[in-house]
Every structure is written in structure tokens, then in C-alpha cells.
Design goal:
5-stranded parallel β-sheet, 15 helices, single chain, about 40% helix, about 375 residues, alpha/beta
Length: about 375
């Protein structure tokens, strides 16, 4: 699917609105201005036509009968995280809500809008320089180094570079040990918030009351043991990025409070009377099937759509086995530097066995195996 218009080609726009009169009017405005326009009168119809139309921009109404715009944007970004999107709506106050939710839309048009407003916003949205091609290599972050040679990782790192430039909320999925936190760090350090804090928390590592206090903070005396005021991680990450690891393990009661923060971008400490405004980019990660958990009522659907604006999947090691030789050399060199000894190497038959091994624990397991071999050899 295209994410930017090619030179010397009319940009193609997919227009989605269940108001047939407004759909026809906007289609005419855009067509007369030289754009190729495809229209859909529902979110479901829009999703069904995405692969066929391959648009350079999707413009959708926010409030529709069959599927609201938030759900549609989530599905579009699941298929193409960097496809530009625009929202139009007649609901008052929605611009602030969209900005707070970090939906990553190129523009918001409040109905009724003038022809000139539409054309100006569209021109800015489709005038996007195609992103550079990213070749195999290493990506250094403050938390470690991403080593890759495989095509699947080249594609992921290319998307990371594109997505990092924005402020959209990102959902990382992938098995345990695949390096999701390294990807989150890369998104932060390659983006405009790189000079601001990167704060992370594992949502499965703390009991509910402690997790609530860590996220939102608390006032002195808010509960037994609260002997002093504590600043939460949402406030600590103000201006920067908050990484919510293993978000699928967050209790349902806390999910509602996190949703409120993402809607209002203000946080109220436990025991506090006033909310504090914050500006935080949220990146979450999970090894679980959140969509399935939503169907089973184990995860809030409204929070899922807020978090899953730009989904990125981190592949398992068995899906990128061609990266194993480079990873072996990287881990061996690191161990040699730590021990101040010459780097060891694997025999050809050992290397071949490692490349074919399934590694259910992924990169973390491979690193442990390498270290064990070095220590015992």
C-alpha cells in the first residue's frame, strides 16, 4: 500500500463518509482539483477497498453508523502504519480529543468547512517526501544495539524511522525476548522527543495498588504507607515518552484510568484533588493477543483502539534466522570486551545448529546460550 504520492502521478484519495451529499460534494471538489478520488460510505467498505485503491491519503468522517473513525484509523494503521489520514467531524471539541489521543492524523477538518480548507489540508498531507530506503545494519540505542540483516527486520526498522518522526501512539507486539523495548527506545531516540525523558514500566511486575501509584503518583496520606508525596511516571515522562511494557497484564480497573489520561492528557495523583496536564507519547508493548482479549472482555476495547494507533510487529527469531550469524558475532564480541579476553568463535557445525534451532525465548535465549557456551568452553 502506498504511503506517499509518486512523482508525476495524480495523488489518489480515499474519501469515507456515510453522508452521501457531503461525500459527493467533497469528491467533486477534489476531482476538479486534479486528485483521483475513490469514495466509500462506510468504514467496512473503506477497509475492503484499501488494497485495491492503494490510496496516498484517507479522509474519513469521525462519526459513522457502522464503524467510527477511531476504529477505522486503527485498522488502516494496522495495515499501513505510515499511510497519511485525515479526520472530519461536526462534533464540537473533537479536535482537542484527537490531539490528546495522538491519533497521528495529518489534519482535522471541522464541519462545515470551506473548499479552500479541504484543498489546503490535502495538499500538505500528500506532499510527503518518500522515506529513504534503509539497508541492513545496526541501530544503536541507549539500551542496547539492534543487529539485523534480514529483509523482515529491514522493513521493520524502515517503519521505525518513519513512525519515530511523529507523535502517534504506538503498539508493539511480539513474543517475549524479541527486543520490543529496544524498538521502543529507537522510536523515542529517533524522534523529536529524544532530548526528553524515556520512562518505562513493566505492567506485569507490580501489584495493582503499587502499579497505580507508580503510574499516576500519590499524595501524602493517600493510603496506608504513603508517608510522602510521590510523582508518577506519567508526570516523570512529561515532554517525552512513556513505555508501558506488557500492557495486556494491566488490571481492568487501571485500564479505565489510563484511558482517561489518554483522552484528557491530564493525570490526577491518587488522593489528589486536581489533575495535572501532561504531554506524553505513549508506546505500549505486549506478547499477548490483545484483539482476542478484547473479544473475551479481558481488555477494554476503547483503550485498545487508543493504544493501537500505529501497530508494529517485532518478528520472532525463527522468522529472521538469517540474522543469527551476525547476532552470534555481536554477542561473542561483547563478552570478549567484558572479560578483556580475545573473542571466541563457533565451529561451523555449531553455528549451523544454532541457525536451525527454534529458540522459543528468541534473542534473550540466544544471548544466554552464547554466554553459556563461552563460559563452559
Amino acid at each position: 500500500m502506498s504511503s506517499s504520492a509518486e512523482p508525476n502521478r495524480q495523488p489518489r484519495i480515499l474519501l469515507v463518509d456515510d453522508d452521501s451529499d457531503h461525500l459527493a460534494l467533497c469528491s467533486r471538489w477534489l476531482s476538479l482539483s486534479g486528485y483521483r478520488v475513490d469514495s466509500a460510505n462506510s468504514g467496512a467498505e473503506a477497509l475492503a477497498s484499501l488494497e485495491q485503491t492503494r490510496p496516498d491519503l484517507v479522509i474519513s468522517d469521525l462519526v459513522m453508523d457502522d464503524m467510527n473513525g477511531l476504529h477505522l484509523l486503527s485498522e488502516i494503521h494496522r495495515q499501513d502504519p505510515v499511510l497519511p489520514t485525515m479526520i472530519m467531524s461536526g462534533k464540537a471539541g473533537v479536535p482537542d480529543a484527537l490531539e490528546a489521543a495522538h491519533l497521528g492524523v495529518s489534519a482535522f477538518l471541522e464541519k462545515p468547512f470551506a473548499k479552500e480548507s479541504l484543498l489546503s489540508a490535502v495538499a500538505k498531507a500528500v506532499d510527503i517526501t518518500p522515506p529513504p530506503a534503509f539497508e541492513a545494519g545496526d541501530l544503536q540505542t541507549s539500551a542496547g544495539q539492534l543487529v539485523y540483516r534480514s529483509a523482515v527486520m529491514q522493513e521493520l526498522i524502515g517503519r521505525v524511522h518513519r513512525v519515530a518522526a511523529g507523535t502517534s501512539t504506538v503498539m508493539l507486539s511480539g513474543e517475549t525476548g524479541t527486543g520490543k523495548e529496544l524498538i521502543a527506545r529507537a522510536l523515542h531516540e529517533l524522534g523529536p522527543r529524544r532530548e526528553q525523558p524515556f520512562v518505562s514500566i513493566n505492567c506485569s511486575a507490580l501489584p495493582e495498588q503499587l502499579l497505580e501509584s507508580e503510574l499516576f503518583g500519590h499524595e501524602k496520606g493517600a493510603f496506608t504507607g504513603a508517608t510522602s508525596r510521590h510523582t508518577g511516571l506519567f508526570q516523570a515522562a512529561d515532554g517525552g515518552t512513556l513505555f508501558l511494557d506488557e500492557i495486556g497484564d494491566m488490571p481492568l480497573s487501571l485500564q479505565a484510568k489510563v484511558l482517561r489520561v489518554l483522552q484528557d492528557f491530564a493525570v490526577r495523583p491518587v488522593g489528589g484533588l486536581h489533575a495535572v496536564k501532561i504531554d506524553v507519547r505513549v508506546i505500549s508493548a505486549t506478547h499477548q493477543d490483545l484483539a482476542g482479549m478484547v473479544e473475551q472482555k479481558q481488555f477494554r476495547d476503547d483503550l485498545y483502539y487508543r493504544l493501537n494507533v500505529v501497530p508494529l510487529h517485532v518478528p520472532a527469531l525463527r522468522q529472521r534466522a538469517e540474522d543469527i550469524p551476525a547476532l552470534l558475532e555481536f554477542f561473542l564480541q561483547g563478552l570478549a570486551e567484558r572479560s578483556n579476553e580475545p573473542a571466541k568463535s563457533f565451529a561451523p557445525e555449531a553455528r549451523a545448529a544454532l541457525i536451525q534451532a527454534p529458540f522459543p525465548g528468541n534473542i534473550r535465549q540466544l544471548q544466554n546460550v552464547v554466554e553459556r557456551c563461552v563460559v563452559l568452553s
